[in-house]
Amino acid sequence: MSRYYISFIFLFFLSGATFAQNEESNPKADPDSSGVVNSALLPTTMPLLLFDDSKEKEEKKEKKKKARKNEWFGIKTRKGYTRQEFRGQQVIEYFNYTDAERRPDPYIRDVYWYDPQERAVNSDGYVVGEGYLLHGPYERVVNEQVVESGMFYYGTKHKTWMLFDSENVLQDKNHFEAGWPRESRIRYYDQTSKSIKEIIPVQYDLEEGNYYHFYEDQQVAVTGEYEYGEKVGLWTEYWDTGNTKAIRKREIQYQEQAYTKNFRPYIRAEWDKDGNLVYRKDN
């Protein structure tokens, strides 16, 4: 997919803090008692750039400069590795990581980070200050043979990623832009102003990853996840509050894993415009 400057609103929580604090202090609090959401994704308040070709310009400038040891995309990094045995095979991951405290793009589903306590690389659960984002080159080696290689940009897959078999034959090649598959599709309300209507994550010609639909005022209207071209997990619709606060409208439960047989999606819960629960499916 060609790169675009796509400016739209970064999502930030503005209201519902009191409700969130009550929930944290009372783990038995009913999560459906209010539709008001404490979320870093809602509502929208500041610009975010997707498919940012300034990164490519930055990379070209870096190539013209004298190479700096362990510096990638202008950021100093450290080298790390993990080692484990799996089914009689030795698996080693070589990577670079940064201690720069940067909050990952909340739209990206998979954010890779190094946990020094567990000496492991994870793709979810990252919390600023509790681990290190991968940043720079990465290799996964099985029995001394490179089977995967690529580049990370603040914890997200970036540029070209390649997969090899045990005979070092290239099996697959993917292209990313700061975590977004290059095949992803963007639809607009207005092409001139680039007012985004929806973001459809696509990989291997199938929907894969986090989906977002926006109202014309750029507040999030729908969030959900695709897996192998099918809707999975909980999809949430939101009331349009004019970017004042985030209130759930409806939640629809889809299969937890793609291609689950005999599963029928159902409405899990609904709320009115004030966040009052009006329906919940009994378990």
What can you see in these coordinates?
The chain has 283 residues and is mainly beta. The chain has helices spanning 17-25, 54-64; strands spanning 6-11, 44-50, 71-72, 75-76, 78-86, 89-98, 113-115, 120-122, 132-142, 145-153, 156-164, 170-177, 180-181, 185-190, 195-200, 202-203, 206-207, 209-214, 220-227, 230-238, 248-253, 266-271, 277-280. Strands 5, 6, 7, 8, 9, 10, 11, 12 and 13 form a nine-stranded antiparallel β-sheet that branches. Strand 5 (78-86) and strand 6 (89-98) form a beta hairpin.
Blueprint of the fold:
Layout: E1 6-11, H1 17-25, E2 44-50, H2 54-64, E3 71-72, E4 75-76, E5 78-86, E6 89-98, E7 113-115, E8 120-122, E9 132-142, E10 145-153, E11 156-164, E12 170-177, E13 180-181, E14 185-190, E15 195-200, E16 202-203, E17 206-207, E18 209-214, E19 220-227, E20 230-238, E21 248-253, E22 266-271, E23 277-280
Antiparallel strand pairs: 1-2, 3-4, 5-6, 6-9, 7-8, 7-9, 9-10, 10-11, 11-12, 12-13, 14-15, 15-18, 16-17, 18-19, 19-20, 20-21, 21-22, 22-23
